Amino acid sequence: MNLQVKSFEEYQDVYNYSLSEPEKFWAEIAENFLWRKKWDQVLEWNFKEPQIKWFLGAKLNITENCIDRHLDTLGDKPAIIWEPNDPEEDHRILSYKQLHQKVCQFSHVLQNNGVKKGDRICIYMPMVPELAIAVLACARVGAIHSVVFGGFSAQSIADRIVDAECSLVITSDGGFRGNKETPMKSVIDDALVQCRSVKKVIVLTRSRTPVSMLKGRDVWWEDEVRKVETNGLTDFPAVEMDAEDMLFILYTSGSTGKPKGVVHTCGGYMVYTGYTFANVFQYQTGEVHFCTADIGWITGHSYIVYGPLSQGATALMFEGIPTWPDAGRLWNIVQKFKVNILYTAPTAIRSLMGYGDGPVAGKDLSSLTKLGSVGEPINEEAWHWFDDKIGHNKCPIVDTWWQTENGGLMISPIANVTPTKPGYATLPLPGVQPVLVDENGKEIEGNGVSGNLCIKFPWPGMLRTTYGDHERCRTTYFATYQNMYFTGDGCLRDEDGYYRITGRVDDVLNVSGHRIGTAEVENAINMHSDVVESAVVGYPHDIKGQGVYAFVVCPNMHGNDNLTRKDITMTVSRIIGPIAKPDKIQFVSGLPKTRSGKIMRRILRKIAEGDTENLGDTSTLLDPAVVEEIKAGAL
Ligand code: WTA
């Protein structure tokens, strides 16, 4: 079966076929990929344990799909175009042949440093081509990568390294983002104080930030590559993997304190990301695909690295941020490289919108043919601005709903195929069976309804487990509703059967498209020595989508309110990372609690939203007076 549908009727036919014959459908899709050995069975599953296996018995290496199979036809075509943070610095282009050579060399480096199939490798790097090379080299040698976003603190990195028992870390001396420089190696040094499993650290030169290199543990990327070159080693035969062998772990936040290591496997993830990339973006050979995400998040894994490369696409990778040196940066990049597909996040669109039309004026955006949005609900104003000012009303916008746990796009328009509607992720992709359920887990049928979004049938890209704790995977995703995967999102299905995601219904915040657990932030705040307890909720934020609002009990603070606020913010930065910093901190004498001691978050959410008139029933509170105080002091 062709990966791309070409008309809405065809989409409907394929969708129906994927419902009636899911295994046949996915087998036909999987035929489009390169396997060393095909599967004996397409699917084995139950959502009880859960146990999910796709393409059982199949053998492959995902990098042969992403690189080797394109060498004959696309060898000299760009695989990765890299635009640096500083527009004055030269960009870089890696053809598929060059990417192959670099991935092979670095695979040797990994092997020379003791890496074996199944080892876990932590990658903490800036958005440079070597990050993609490191990811692919791990996959080529059969090691499991765990990429940690550059905005996380040493403590967060340490937690992730310990949880996955990583044996090696790949990092760089430092990284640039806007006018900031992050001393990445030094952050890793701080993290490694707590990590006994790590035997080696490979350090790429990027920023020339001074670093301390420990004898016996730390080696330079360039030195290691030079050794391989001296030995004349160019190819590295990819290690054969089982379809269900782990490909990577990616940590993400949930409603409990500790981030979970979402596990994806080789075969299903490859098929799912390749298929959804080709179909949703209707990728045509030669097009330049620019996904503005960081590879530290799932969007970067799936739609900068694996999805595009498996389809022989040209992926543009950008090291910097959309607002530096000015708010025209993305448009300059589009113009410079004649970008065809721009895939970004509502938070970026809203922020750029705030600068008015000036930064867009005069930029040649005529190369653009398709636009995409991901990570959070897109408000209509931002949708229209994107459509008018960037797409000039001629580019379809694919509002793609999905999650780290999903591996790839789930509910989304298909470019030029699905009629779009602002704010709507529209319809499920073939193979995806969404359902809306009520509080009791009863399926809500028909249109013009809303409920909690679940998926009732497996798809190849879904998570298989949470690393080291399968029970956690079961209770988080498969225990709320029987025989369904629960997404944690609320959703409505309108009269046309179109889906609109309304946001998380659990204690997960979505701040600038980043997932942050409220419990995680509370734990971090509570680490501050003056804090007795705290409660964190989200509130609507014009640019970030959601902001972090913290109610903090801090009776004997040292210093004044503002200093203590800064101290608390510092604490959160140190424990989690700057991305989780509270936007507002309100000091309160107590938190609204029920008689059984449960914090009534519903009330705090209302206060944070500024909706203090409708607090609902407060009669079950232990101390209703505290609500009046909190209302009066709301920020
Ligand atoms: C939210 C990001 C509305 C949603 C790929 C989900 C969205 C969470 C959309 C996953 C969208 C993602 N419209 N909401 N198009 N895409 N979300 O794991 O709440 O970082 O549960 O994956 O982002 O975030 P994650």
UniProtKB/TrEMBL annotation:
<keyword id="KW-0067">ATP-binding</keyword>
<dbReference type="InterPro" id="IPR025110">
    <property type="entry name" value="AMP-bd_C"/>
</dbReference>
<dbReference type="Pfam" id="PF13193">
    <property type="entry name" value="AMP-binding_C"/>
</dbReference>
<dbReference type="Pfam" id="PF16177">
    <property type="entry name" value="ACAS_N"/>
</dbReference>
<keyword id="KW-0436">Ligase</keyword>
<dbReference type="GO" id="GO:0003987">
    <property type="term" value="F:acetate-CoA ligase activity"/>
</dbReference>
<feature type="domain" description="AMP-dependent synthetase/ligase">
    <location>
        <begin position="69"/>
        <end position="458"/>
    </location>
</feature>
<comment type="similarity">
    <text>Belongs to the ATP-dependent AMP-binding enzyme family.</text>
</comment>
<feature type="domain" description="AMP-binding enzyme C-terminal">
    <location>
        <begin position="520"/>
        <end position="598"/>
    </location>
</feature>
<keyword id="KW-0007">Acetylation</keyword>
<feature type="domain" description="Acetyl-coenzyme A synthetase N-terminal">
    <location>
        <begin position="11"/>
        <end position="66"/>
    </location>
</feature>
<dbReference type="InterPro" id="IPR032387">
    <property type="entry name" value="ACAS_N"/>
</dbReference>
<dbReference type="GO" id="GO:0005524">
    <property type="term" value="F:ATP binding"/>
</dbReference>
<dbReference type="InterPro" id="IPR000873">
    <property type="entry name" value="AMP-dep_synth/lig_dom"/>
</dbReference>
<dbReference type="Pfam" id="PF00501">
    <property type="entry name" value="AMP-binding"/>
</dbReference>
<dbReference type="GO" id="GO:0016208">
    <property type="term" value="F:AMP binding"/>
</dbReference>
<dbReference type="InterPro" id="IPR011904">
    <property type="entry name" value="Ac_CoA_lig"/>
</dbReference>
<dbReference type="InterPro" id="IPR045851">
    <property type="entry name" value="AMP-bd_C_sf"/>
</dbReference>
<dbReference type="InterPro" id="IPR020845">
    <property type="entry name" value="AMP-binding_CS"/>
</dbReference>
<dbReference type="GO" id="GO:0019427">
    <property type="term" value="P:acetyl-CoA biosynthetic process from acetate"/>
</dbReference>
<keyword id="KW-0547">Nucleotide-binding</keyword>
<protein>
    <recommendedName>
        <fullName>Acetate--CoA ligase</fullName>
        <ecNumber>6.2.1.1</ecNumber>
    </recommendedName>
</protein>
<dbReference type="InterPro" id="IPR042099">
    <property type="entry name" value="ANL_N_sf"/>
</dbReference>
